[in-house]
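Posted in: Protein Modeling Q&A

I'm a second-year student putting together a small comparison for a lab meeting, and my supervisor asked me to include a predicted structure for Mitochondrial phosphate carrier protein. I've never done this before, so apologies if this is the wrong subforum. The sequence is pasted below exactly as I got it from our records. If anyone can share the structure token output, I'd also love a short note on what stands out.
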Amino acid sequence: MSANAPAPVQQVAEKVAPAPQKMSGLQLYSGFAFAGAVCCSVTHGALTPVDVVKTRIQLDPATYNRGMIGGFKQVVAKEGAGALLTGFGPTAAGYFLQGAFKFGGYEFFKQQWINQLGLETASNNRTAVYLASSATAEFFADIALCPLEATRIRLVSQPEFASGLVSGFGKILKNEGIGAFYSGFGPMLFKQVPYTMAKFVVFEKVAESIYRTVDKETASDGTKTGINLGSGLIAGFAAALVSQPADTMLSKINKTKGAPGEGTMTRLFKIGKELGFRGSYAGIGARLFMVGSITAGQFAIYGDIKRLLGVTGGVEISK
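Accepted answer (user: helix_wrangler)
Welcome! Here is the predicted structure, written out as tokens:
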């Protein structure tokens, strides 16, 4: 055979790599859920010290009145550096569950809307699809998160209450019943649902505007991670501002149990009246830093884990 003769067809075919098969069904949404669980658990857990200071400022603004840096110094001086990790257990565990429902649910409900409306209609009304999908996903995520968040706040606001997640959870369950875990469910919804709606919509819109000038198909993994970080940071600032009043109320309502016969709504109105507008934004500086960092990290980690897992079956409706 001549050296210049074409290679056999079979040899050429062997060199062509098969196109990667897209995931679907349970495998696809399990990947979304796992990526969401890890990104939320890691980011919220890492910023536990900031959350401790933020919660102290919200619950006792008269004492913790020196801002975020001053609050760190006050906590360390009064209780030692270890106090900054108070509530790490319920934070990491709670947001692992919440992240799975939030991100996995967002992708799932977004796909259901696309199925119902059709791809073109969903794309033309994508803001409404993002809002509806994120709100529904967050509702179910909060059912999972609420007991652990109630335990975390009790540990942070009352350091002597219990030694950690298991003992604190058990003590609340034994002394106050399962209803105590959901005393803050109302304000949690008021906080988390608008927060998540703002978070996903702003992220999607910012990323979409960036990808109008950057080719997503040819962009490097590092470029994509950077875009996710920047879009997530802006989304986090927006989400923090929208949800701050309810976050303060959630901290207040979980600090102590209510008076006998006092309903959740009665307590909420009472707390809201006591706080006022200015009081409801106590600790906003610490929370902007915390939520901005958390959200940027979440979307960066979420995107990276999806790429590593090959979770590529979701439908995009951005333009």
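A couple of things worth pointing out for your meeting: Confidence is low (pLDDT under 50) at residues 12-19. The radius of gyration is 23 Å.
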